[in-house]
């Protein structure tokens, strides 16, 4: 277990489970000293968590996780130390929600056309703001398939090859970019995301590159050339080989190394707060991060 976790999500992300205060309690239970709630395109949970931390032996570093693109590849960029009162963050969130409401209908239609059905009533109980993501569809579909008869869902049930994090794995398998039930949402450009983060006093960090960069060195170099200042090396998604690859690249290019579990709750049950090994580099990560933040 690590005493830092710089990447987790509250229910202000459409795929998060817990309230910001509940995340703080979970962090304290897991003996976390430094943490960040980095919700998807949202800063709504930061203030509540920050206020709740007062008087407790824990420090929050304000953050956000922005969706963006480079050369038609979708990326997640973490912004640490941001001024979360900036209006631009609210504008981004409103735009994403509006687009997601439309994309949700297409996403559900495509999933049903593949032969995976679910209850609209269950979807309505899970949805917020009319947004239905892949994780919600997975939960509803697995509940609908009570006798576990649908062959398309078998690998997500207990002991299946994708059962460790069934809901989010379903998203990656069916609803992610390039998959059969992908519904496009137009995100901001990577350079714009970096500019927004830096103009708000924050530092831009590439999140879990093993998920979407996949050790493509040319793509990685293009991303870094846009102004990224750090990489989330230690991630619950990364294998030991990926940790080594991205750590060597970061050190060679004098980039900040960060650590985050990407905890969501029920959508990723195998991921725990503080559960990502950062090779006992907590003190270095936090001190370097604070140095970077103070420069912006």
Automatic annotation (TrEMBL):
Transmembrane segments: none annotated. GO terms for molecular function: 5'-3' DNA exonuclease activity; 5'-3' RNA exonuclease activity. PANTHER family: EXONUCLEASE, POLYMERASE_HISTIDINOL PHOSPHATASE N-TERMINAL DOMAIN-CONTAINING PROTEIN. Gene3D superfamilies: 1.10.150.650, Metal-dependent hydrolases. SUPFAM superfamilies: PHP domain-like (SSF89550). InterPro entries: PHP_dom, PHP_domain, Pol/His_phosphatase_N, Pol/histidinol_Pase-like. This is PHP domain protein. It holds the Pfam family PHP. CDD domains: PHP_HisPPase_AMP (cd07438). Residues 4-70 form the Polymerase/histidinol phosphatase N-terminal domain.
